[in-house]
Design a protein that fits this description.
The chain contains 4 helices and 7 strands. It is α+β, with helices and mostly antiparallel strands and 176 residues long. It has a 7-stranded antiparallel β-sheet with strand order 4-3-5-6-1-2-7. A hairpin with a 3-residue loop joins strand 5 and strand 6. The chain is globular, with a radius of gyration of 17 Å.
Length: 176
């Protein structure tokens, strides 16, 4: 499936609407969300119905379970979930699933629309809201955001390597 996700930084007016491929793993989708806001690497986590699901650190899995497909969350249009980033301070987000379809008719991944850039330095909800309201806040460049997402890709290219890095045993074959 493909998803349109509206991600809002809680207690701020800053948000993004991004299109992601549900066959991408949880870490990968978490990093796409982070890249849509231009966060530096850090720990990521989804919260679905009060269940915390870790989603790696900077796009890299820390345990093999983080390589499950985003589709495995079983999300439907209209569902809400939370997303956390640690930068090192924790920043909370609300995610609304706007659309779930076999094919969204847009290039994956994409940032279709959004509001607000983030300040350099402290990234607390208060600092972000203050920066948004300031005269120094330039407009969001959707092309730049989408280019960042597309440079990262729509899904992980080397799952086997990531699984081994997350602690799984490498597959070994011998032909008899």
């Amino acid at each position: 499936m493909q998803y349109l996700l509206k991600i809002t930084i809680k207690n701020t007016p800053v948000w993004r609407l991004i299109a992601v491929d549900g066959s991408a793993d949880l870490c990968f989708v978490a990093e796409l969300i982070a890249k849509s806001f231009d966060y530096r690497p850090g720990k990521r986590c989804f919260i679905v119905q009060d269940h915390r699901i870790t989603a790696g650190n900077g796009g890299e899995p820390t345990v093999p379970a983080e390589l499950k497909a985003f589709d495995s969350l079983g999300l439907k249009q209209g569902d809400f979930l939370s997303f956390e980033v640690s930068l090192p301070e924790k920043l909370d987000h609300s995610i609304e699933v706007m659309k779930v379809e076999d094919h969204l008719y847009c290039l994956m991944p994409s940032c279709l629309v959004g509001v607000g850039l983030l300040p350099k330095g402290e990234l607390s909800a208060g600092a972000i809201a203050d920066y948004y309201d300031s005269e120094d806040n330039p407009g969001l460049d959707l092309k730049e955001v989408t280019n960042r997402l597309r440079a990262y890709g729509s899904k992980r290219s080397d799952v086997s390597k990531s699984m081994v890095a997350a602690g799984a045993e490498p597959l070994k074959f011998s032909l008899q």
